[in-house]
């Protein structure tokens, strides 16, 4: 199970929505929190099908800033609690597990108003004793070392944040990856890097989920990076062999036409078609590998302590990631089976709704004969095989006399009649 939090700096941008969809697909989080959406709540809530979720709730923006949203699926139970322009508060329960509290936070941007966020969190603490996790953009640091570059933060700002953390009994869960989550260009062309996004948890939440760990990811469409908190490992499911299908996305590659022409002009049709199919499959897998490689390279560059701002190479990588995300969008549209609209159409919500309706159901767990529940893939296979084997096996009988004695007999005279 996991929670993805991202200050996306506006969901009115098609490139940002594409990247958010790619993130949701890549890391498959149980819950997604989006911050500073900068759009009305109905627009955020309408993205749930495009992102592959069953449920959503959002708080509208205030002018050109603010706005929050949360997405989740039906495999966890979520109950909405009071919310504000700074937070969305919910109760979460996974199966028969413990009930706990999740608060998605967007800290007040104005320093003289930031105490409102801290007061709100302290009020939540006073009204609940459940295990509690807070995640989001707090717009503040706990230590001066978390602010790299010019424009140092005042001690009073940091002290207010620390005081709230102490009152609520929070622990910082740490992170993997580069040490900052926000990058800003300041006067004179310099850059500062700050850890504004984080996860805070009470000790009883950490007792419930001792394996919890956070990772700082990379993003090309925002100056904030997404953070992913995972608290329980799941057994990977084996995938079956996929059928070959033509991808419209292939046509966006310059070498596609030449490969097609060369294969068509060869004499041995069977061999050339197999070669063409093999080449085209490699294009699809190459797209996935290239995206993964670019994101890893972006993480490496952003983690370099010698760099205080995006280099030319980093900007080129971000540009390439956005281009490949667009090619993935074309594939998404094709999978919706609505082929009579152009791939350049930016109103993609219709495609996502159609494609989401075709999602296959999957069995997450099965109850064994002894009453215990299993999520083990092999055990579920054995249970299903055993069930249908028993269902379609004839019980048979060795004593047919009892059956035959109930059948009336007909003699010669009866047949003549």
From TrEMBL:
Q: Which UniProt keywords apply?
A: Coiled coil
Query: One GO molecular-function annotation for this sequence?
Result: catalytic activity
The record ties this protein, via InterPro entries, to: Endo/exonu/phosph_ase_sf (IPR036691), Endo/exonuclease/phosphatase (IPR005135)
Domain of life where this protein originates: Eukaryota
Pfam families under this entry? Exo_endo_phos
> Taking every annotated instance into account, which residue ranges of this chain make up the domain Endonuclease/exonuclease/phosphatase?
4-224
Coiled-coil residue spans: 273-304
Keyword Nucleotide-binding included in the entry's annotation: no
The record, for PANTHER family, names: ENDONUCLEASE_EXONUCLEASE_PHOSPHATASE DOMAIN-CONTAINING PROTEIN, RNASE H DOMAIN-CONTAINING PROTEIN
Q: What is this protein called?
A: Endonuclease/exonuclease/phosphatase domain-containing protein
- What's the source species for this entry? Panicum virgatum (Blackwell switchgrass)
């Amino acid at each position: 199970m996991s929670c993805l939090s991202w200050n996306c700096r506006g969901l009115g941008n098609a490139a940002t929505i594409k990247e958010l969809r790619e993130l949701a697909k890549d890391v498959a989080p149980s819950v997604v929190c989006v911050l500073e959406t900068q759009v009305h709540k109905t627009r955020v809530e309408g993205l749930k099908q495009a992102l592959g979720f069953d449920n959503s709730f959002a708080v509208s923006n205030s002018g050109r800033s603010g706005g929050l949203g949360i997405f989740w699926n039906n495999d966890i139970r979520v109950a909405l609690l009071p919310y504000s322009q700074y937070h969305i508060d919910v109760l979460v329960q996974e199966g028969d597990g413990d009930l706990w509290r999740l608060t998605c936070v967007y800290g007040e941007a104005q320093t003289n108003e930031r105490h409102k966020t801290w007061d709100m969190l302290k009020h939540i603490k006073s009204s609940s004793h459940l295990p509690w996790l807070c995640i989001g953009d707090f717009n503040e640091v706990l230590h001066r070392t978390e602010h790299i570059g010019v424009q140092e933060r005042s001690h009073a700002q940091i002290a207010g944040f620390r005081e709230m953390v102490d009152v609520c009994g929070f622990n910082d869960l740490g992170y993997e990856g580069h040490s900052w989550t926000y990058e800003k260009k300041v006067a004179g062309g310099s850059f500062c890097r700050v850890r504004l996004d984080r996860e805070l948890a009470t000790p009883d939440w950490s007792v419930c989920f001792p394996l919890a760990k956070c990772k700082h990811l990379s993003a090309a469409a925002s100056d904030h990076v997404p953070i992913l908190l995972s608290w329980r490992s799941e057994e990977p499911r084996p995938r079956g062999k996929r059928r070959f299908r033509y991808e419209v996305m292939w046509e966006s590659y310059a070498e596609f036409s030449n490969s097609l022409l060369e294969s068509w002009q060869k004499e041995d049709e069977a061999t050339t078609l197999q070669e063409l199919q093999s080449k085209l499959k490699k294009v699809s897998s190459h797209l996935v590998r290239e995206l993964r490689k670019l994101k890893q390279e972006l993480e490496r560059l952003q983690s370099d302590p010698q760099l205080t701002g995006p280099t030319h190479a980093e900007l080129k990588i971000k540009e390439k990631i956005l281009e490949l995300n667009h090619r993935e969008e074309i594939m998404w549209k094709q999978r919706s089976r609505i082929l009579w609209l152009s791939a350049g159409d930016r109103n993609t919500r219709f495609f996502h709704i159609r494609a989401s309706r075709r999602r296959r159901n999957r069995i997450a767990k099965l109850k064994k004969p002894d009453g215990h529940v299993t999520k083990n893939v092999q055990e579920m296979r054995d249970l299903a095989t055993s069930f249908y084997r028993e269902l379609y096996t004839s019980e048979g009988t060795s004593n047919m006399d009892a059956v035959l004695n109930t059948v009336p007999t007909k003699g010669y005279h009866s047949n003549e009649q």
